[in-house]
Fold this sequence. Notes:
Blueprint: H1 19-50, H2 52-63, H3 65-92, H4 99-125
Amino acid sequence: MTGSNRPLSPHxxxxxxxxxxxxxxxxxxxxxxxxxxxxxxxxxLWALAQGEENYSAFQSGVDSVFGRIVLYGWVxxxxxxxxxxxxxxxxxxxxxxxKHHMNFFxxxxxxxxxxxxxxxxxxSIG
Length: 126
């Protein structure tokens, strides 16, 4: 078959996703990660119910570097998912559909998620 001058199908290497598209994908991903995090939380409660030895093993996993990264990621996912849900609630009321509003709320969503995550860990230490 010889080559032709027909256009190729559009794909992600040709088009750049807008910020709202990236955040939509992140929202779905954080939903999955929150489900996995809830399973880990349930495992922690199970370990607590099984006694001190099992809970100590669970706690040592949470206190590790990997465990801390997972914990920070889970809390960020929780706050990001919440902020994105609030943005969808604003859309449900029929506002925020202009392009500059969508970009503003998208950036605000990320900033608020980071601020809420930092505040949660700062206030949990004290």
